[in-house]
What does this fold into?
Amino acid sequence: MDLPEIVTKVVNLNNNRLVGKTRLQKTFYFLEELDAGFGLTFDYYHYGPYSEDLNIATQDAEALGLLNVDWKSTSAGTNYAIFYSKIRPEEEDIDKRRVKILQVLDQYDSISIELAATADYLEKNGYGSEAWLETEARKPEKASTDRIDRAKNILKELSRI
It folds into this structure.
């Protein structure tokens, strides 16, 4: 299975809808980190772990007609994408661990997921026990106490899968 098709099938497993490029990136990040991924590599960018290969595959999936991308704007004028799959995964493509990971992430807002992925990435890439402090320092406008608590809960729930 090629990467554009994989992107499409993961969107389909996520109730055929995934809102936001950041959520898409972090979803695939967690799939990789929990050994349910597809061999993508992630580097750190402003919004946390990011895979350029995933970005290209998403654009390719749209160009190939496998994925619909609907652009919307928030009341503040920020644009965001809503991804819809045009294909269904075959029964043998449905990995129950992937589905469980998607179900956990689906319970949380995108910013909490971004914070969780950022802290996880930083912990594994040199910050160790200081990862949460570094996450808060890098994202002060997003790192409210409630969101940090939710982000920590995401990691706790994902660790049980």
Observations:
- The chain has a mean pLDDT of 94.
- The two ends are 25 Å apart (CA to CA).
- Residues 30 and 38 are 11 Å apart (CA to CA).
- Helices lie at 3-13, 21-33, 52-63, 96-106, 110-127, 131-138, 145-159.
